[in-house]
Amino acid sequence: MAITDWPEDERPRERLLKQGAAALSDAELLAIFLRVGVKGQSAVDLARTLLNHFGSLTRLFAAGPTEFVAIPGMGNAKYAQLQAVVEMARRALREELATRDLLSTPAAVRDWLRLHIGGLSHEVFVALWLDAQNRLIADEVLFTGTLTQTSVYPREVVKQALARNAAAVVLAHNHPSGVAEPSQADELLTRSLKQALALVDVKLLDHFIVAAGVAPLSFAERGLL
Fold this sequence. Notes:
Helix content: 40-55%
Number of strands: 5
Number of helices: 10
Distance between the termini: 54 Å
Order of helices and strands: HHHHHHHEEHEHEEH
Low-confidence stretches: none
Largest sheet: 5 strands, mixed
Mean pLDDT: 88
């Protein structure tokens, strides 16, 4: 049954206008983006197909064009539209981080990290460089690794901190396995980086582990810094 044949108070777009976007499920929100379904599937059915295939919105957002267009009803135009929406969300969050104390916006930090690295199939190590007011100066991928490990060199991290004239930093890396728990190696690396950065008066405010489908883990909140 097409969505236009549904009772008006059950249609995603009408519900959004009356109740707000937060009242909708992931599939309903995605259906509004898709606008139409395919033969035998409404837009909501197609949205559920996409979510089942990729496993989460995070992995859907991180999908490459080849994997995305392999889904019946999806094409390059729809992929481009989706990536434009995701990039606008990233930039809006980045604007918030650049104008406010990063420590006062923990939800925005987590959302930004999820959108950037949560759905990647390879491991990356990123830094959010901050000024003396904990506002974002720059973000960058410092190291890229394999599915299981990343080689992180404290000397290179310190070099980049000095190049950015940073007063503080928030570090993060992803776990493609989907488990956002720190390994012993993660804890040892964090302590090593904190000590190295302290030598040049740069504060390590937090280190996050990001995985698809779960909230990023904060070392600071776990008492691991």
